[in-house]
Specification:
about 240 residues; Rossmann fold; Arc Repressor Mutant, subunit A; 4-stranded antiparallel beta sheet
């Protein structure tokens, strides 16, 4: 059975174009043209990925993304936007979208992005099954990471992280003490070249800091190494 993708866009021509190319690539496609229809379909069906337009009737793509994540629907989301406004793209990523593309786009690039996201998810699932002897918990100060369960606790309180936020934090923690460039993080977590756009890394770092740093202006876990990238450290906490 082919993997099913939900394509959401109010422009029928775009839906038809995406459906043709995705089905040609071997995926099953379900179409939605409004935000409400997208929510209903995503919550009541199993999709491997959602291609979600930003501008939709009834409720927009940002609100769809927000509500799905609030209701623990963690299906990967590739966001489409015709806007040049950087704020909308960043907000979409912060709300839980995994990637974005700006219209007009190449259908071949959409398929490539979809394959990259699904390949990453597949590899992670396989690795998770093989990690029989993996450390069950990684502790750093007041942060506890449970790789097997995709869970993170801060001060004993479970954090609500998107899959990308967890993967980024876990990768940083595994390489504790090492300076990692934005390109390294981009390739490791997103598993493909992001056309040199490393801003997606900065957005997710900022979001992680809001959740685990006592003071985001003076981070003690995720340090910025000026001109290079980021480094994860285990802080020395005062009793």
């Amino acid at each position: 059975m082919s993997q099913k993708i939900l394509v959401v866009d109010d422009e029928e021509s775009i839906v038809t174009l995406l459906q043709f190319n995705l089905e040609k690539a071997g995926y099953g496609v379900t179409a939605a043209y409004t935000g409400n229809d997208a929510l209903a379909l995503a919550k009541n069906n199993e999709f491997c990925l959602i291609v979600l337009d930003l501008m939709l009737p009834e409720i927009d793509g940002l609100e769809v993304c927000k509500q799905l994540r609030q209701e623990k629907v963690m299906t990967p989301i590739l966001m489409l936007t015709a806007k040049d406004d950087e704020f909308d793209k960043i907000l979409g990523l912060e709300l839980g979208a995994d990637d974005y593309m700006t219209k007009p786009f190449s259908p071949r690039e959409v398929v490539a992005r979809v394959r990259a996201i699904l390949r990453r998810v597949s590899v992670q699932n396989i690795e998770k099954d093989k990690q029989v002897e993996e450390v069950k918990v990684m502790k750093f100060g007041e942060v506890e990471i449970y790789p097997d369960n995709y869970e993170v606790f801060y001060k004993k309180v479970k954090l609500e992280l998107t899959p990308k936020e967890f993967e980024l934090l876990h990768y940083l923690a595994v390489h504790k003490g090492k300076v990692l460039t934005r390109d390294q993080l981009l390739n490791a977590v997103w598993n493909y070249e992001f056309v040199g756009d490393t801003r997606i890394v900065d957005v997710h770092i900022s979001h992680l800091r809001e959740k685990i740093e006592p003071n985001t202006k003076k981070p003690i876990y995720i340090k910025t190494i000026r001109g290079l990238g980021y480094k994860f450290e285990e802080p020395i906490l005062n009793d």
